[in-house]
């Protein structure tokens, strides 16, 4: 049986020390429930002595008993010259009601002398008394030896004497912290091994990511004997963040043969990462290992050709093991393999042969040279494939559009668009206002088409991005517009390119509508019936 490594999540405490992250009590409760479901062993809820919100979280958690995880309250040792029994911070930890108390204490002499401005002996007393006091109150005590690795490098005897004080006072776990995040994996490995020979209490690791080694250092510590890893979901935390528990769990379990969570939970890793990112209102990088959108996205033609033969050729694990999925991108770097795989993924029966696929790829490369980008606009790519294989019915076409804008001293700027589109031989002529020219154009186009295609009333635009393609051309530069649309929770993206931003937007808007109509299977025959009825209604 593989050895169990315990997971200690500090997203709700160290994670909220990240710049730009602030979680409400309700957010914290939701994340705690999800971490519990995933199989995290300890969830550090916050610092009760720090602020009312953290205290409220511990109160709230009394109403939401977790299935298996334990909630830990965090704080420091007592202050210099203050007895543990009267220290307000320790009292707040006890008042939180959490069964687990995690306290950090100084283990680097520099910090004792310069930050605490006290003696080395008094610091040992603070560690000893604080832990004994919490143990007297039947708490499980986790001692975080702050700055342990830097302290050990400077004064190993003192750093270890702090751990011994914690052990003698009854700490249940001793966690070695790379607080400044500057240690290297081989240093962490050697130091943890040395400590292992002198301390019997189970060890943990808490590493920061300042040298981009938070995960590597956590893994090195485990190899050297640590049995608990502290970290945060998506690696959020003070400065450059903490060890990313997402990558820690995946590596420990899939690469190193340790056991952290049940296998079926591991398949929830991608969802967990995205859930926490959503609640924390943070954008996760596409290239985030294991769970990122691009973690198993293949772009180069050589890669795709090989992956289709055997995924191991360019994938270190199967994406499904962590709940992610393989994606094939089509771009100027693609070969015919990308195109054939993509058409299969998009469920478009592109029944051309290899030569036709190569010609199609040349067409895509030419359009990318003009400024189009299809890897971010798969709906436009689908339309291109359908069109070139003669499977796309031209359900409507543009006769003309006009846009007027008016700004007066009294009123905000107003945009009005008029469009003439031809649907089944009939001209639909409509006008609509909007809060900007693209919005007005979108409204007018839908007004013209919704009567014939009622499904369009259910779609809306969710994102609009403009990129200037060659800034040196100034106003004559081309722009690329990417539009994201949504219907019933399903999203799709389209692209338009022109030297005129309105024309590029029109192209992307039209594609977004054409894509939905194709998905809905609207055919010219249905269209004929619908337009006849509509003309009937109009003539009545
Ligand atoms: C490594 C880590 O990430 S530890 C966690 C860091 N997280 C936070 O700091 C977030 C929460 N912090 C807070 O809300 C506030 O800083 C509080 C409530 C804890 C303290 O606030 P204040 O009393 O105003 O003190 P302030 O924040 O200015 O300074 C921290 C004090 O703690 C002392 N301190 C630092 N580490 C320890 C320790 N391990 N044990 C005891 N005291 C400590 C410092 O010496 C300093 O004391 P001083 O004011 O006598 O110089
Ligand atoms: C305890 C902690 O957060 C640290 O040492 O980084």
UniProtKB/TrEMBL annotation:
SUPFAM superfamilies: 2-isopropylmalate synthase LeuA, allosteric (dimerisation) domain (SSF110921), Aldolase (SSF51569)
Taxonomic source organism: Brevibacillus fulvus
Swiss-Prot/TrEMBL GO biological process terms: isoleucine biosynthetic process; L-leucine biosynthetic process
Pfam family membership, one: HCS_D2
Protein name (record): Citramalate synthase
Enzyme Commission number(s) from the entry: 2.3.3.21
Pathway as given in its UniProt record: Amino-acid biosynthesis; L-isoleucine biosynthesis; 2-oxobutanoate from pyruvate: step 1/3
Family statement: Belongs to the alpha-IPM synthase/homocitrate synthase family.
Catalytic activity: pyruvate + acetyl-CoA + H2O = (3R)-citramalate + CoA + H(+)
GO MF entries: (R)-citramalate synthase activity; 2-isopropylmalate synthase activity
Keyword Lyase tagged: no
UniProt domain Pyruvate carboxyltransferase: residue ranges: 5-267
Record keywords, A-Z: Acyltransferase, Amino-acid biosynthesis, Branched-chain amino acid biosynthesis, Isoleucine biosynthesis, Transferase
